[in-house]
Write a structure and sequence with these properties.
The protein has 149 residues and is mainly beta. The chain is 4% helix and 63% strand. Strands 6-5-4-3-2-1-10-9-8-7 form a 10-stranded antiparallel beta sheet, with no helix packed on it.
Length: 149
């Protein structure tokens, strides 16, 4: 018998489940105690067999606020979702059909570990744990469907 989390995660049964506009709230907690945040939006748009993720928002760093933008490209390969940087370099991949997939991106000397959470779909999230000689933070992001768009 499948759990409730597994039943809910079935709603992200394909790449196209992400199409649309999402509100984004992100908290960044550094090992030294500093905290930063970002509020913004993410738009997932179909482009042939790919899904383009465009993220924009206001990043609050200590006493300043900056506009932040990021583009990623998602592609489904069977039961895997592969995430690429905008220039199509591989970033990470994870399996579909489970509520809490994880992945790692090694960028020596830094390591990026992500734990996704699709258990409360369509609200979902990711927690990135980033470690390296100059990096040591946890970044928690929550994505909520934008009902206004």
């Amino acid at each position: 018998m499948e759990s409730l989390a597994e039943a809910r995660s079935a709603e992200i049964a394909s790449l196209w489940s992400l199409v649309g506009q999402w509100s984004l709230v992100r908290q960044i907690r550094h090992a030294d105690g500093r905290k930063n945040s970002l509020t913004g939006e993410v738009v997932f748009t179909r482009s042939g067999s790919r899904l383009i993720q465009d993220e924009s928002g206001l990043l609050r760093l200590d006493d300043q606020a900056l506009e932040a933008r990021q583009r990623l490209v998602w592609k489904q390969d069977g039961s895997l979702l592969r995430v690429h940087f905008a220039d199509m370099r591989p970033f990470h991949e994870f399996p579909l059909g489970i509520a809490d997939p994880e992945a790692v991106h090694d960028c020596p000397p830094d390591r990026y570990h992500v734990a996704y959470d699709f258990a409360h779909w369509p609200i979902w999230g990711s927690v990135w744990t980033v470690t390296g000689p100059r990096k040591d933070y946890v970044m928690n992001s929550t994505y909520t469907p934008d009902q206004g768009g």
